[in-house]
Amino acid sequence: MVQTSTIITASAVSFAAAILAYAVYFDNQRRSHAEFRRDLRRNERRQARAEREEAEASTRLRREAIKAKVDAAKEEGFPTGVEERETFFNDQVGAGEMLSADPAGAMDAALAFYKGLKVYPAPGELVKIYDNTVPKPILDILADMIAYDKTLDIRPRSAGHGFDLADMPSVGLD
Question: Is the CA virtual torsion 65, 60, 109, 151 positive or negative?
Answer without folding.
Answer: negative
